[in-house]
Amino acid sequence: xxxxxxxxxxxxxxxxxxxxxxxxxxxxxxxxxxxxxxxxxxxxxxxxxxxxxxxxxxxxxxxxxxxxxxxxxxxxxxxxxxxxxxxxxxxxxxxxxxxxxxxxxxxxxxxxxxxxxxxxxxxxxxxxxxxxxxxxxxxxxxxxxxxxxxxxxxxxxxxxxxxxxxxxxxxxxxxxxxxxxxxxxxxxxxxxxxxxxxxxxxxxxxxxxxxxxxxxxxxxxxxxxxxxxxxxxxxxxxxxxxxxxxxxxxxxxxxxxxxxxxxxxxxxxxxxxxxxxxxxxxxxxxxxxxxxxxxxxxxxxxxxxxxxxxxxxxxxxxxxxxxxxxxxxxxxxxxxxxxxxxxxxxxxxxxxxxxx
Length: 356
Hints:
Layout: E1 16-18, H1 27-36, E2 42-48, H2 49-57, H3 63-66, E3 75-80, H4 84-97, E4 101-106, H5 112-116, H6 126-142, E5 149-154, H7 163-175, E6 180-184, H8 195-198, H9 206-215, E7 220-224, H10 233-237, E8 242-245, H11 247-251, H12 253-257, H13 260-263, H14 274-290, H15 295-299, H16 312-320, H17 328-344
Helix pairs in contact: 2-4, 4-6, 6-7, 14-17, 16-17
């Protein structure tokens, strides 16, 4: 199976998307996702505007932050930061690199956000966020780019999590020209919880996202947080414009997205099997090896490809042994052999199947 060569239609791609996740949604994982779904919108890991701009100013190649495969589209660049000048300059670099959207991270709960003044901390400074949005839109306009500028945020921070607080934040940023908000339906607790705990401990409040859409019916409101299966998506789409999937997308990409194009987007193309996806991804890995990419940086993202399917445990074991193989090419040969065996032995003992 070949990777998709044509840029898919942009219409309604925000209906289903994969969240920006640090150390997860790099260009290799995004390529794997695109092999499974043609239509799902993809997001980069967060890139700080400061790192991107200063890297370029120092003469270092900014493409180490911006590289993406032509088949990834539609793909958005997520930026972190709060300096309007740096954010605008970074956004222009992203547009020139070919990204389809610039997304601002106003939801990261890391303990770095207060000192770095980005992420969820900025919910307390809506006028600054609005200034960043306005500066980015003006800079993009000057270079002839019409790509959208969107915001990913929480429903609140610490003790500032009322409906009025969220409405005020969204209202102010909307006036700067942002018409799409991705709402992680938990508040962020900036003192005392780790990023992982902030994804799990504050309760999900989907009704808050639903209400936001009712309060701002002309905005595009996309829900993020807690959705684990494709079957859950339609119930939220009855209230909202889209769903963004986080850890479930990374942990079980095929199990979640194999039917997404058909169920969500109404496509009629055949869904490739896990084995076909795996072979296409190994072909990609071979091409990347030739450019000097380390094999483990690619294969680590495929651990969940067979989640819930026969052969899952053997596949994960083989991927975990990649670094110990005699050579990267020997490791690839071993993985090809494993897929061939899986093709010829469709019935595998249930003990070799990982629960979804």
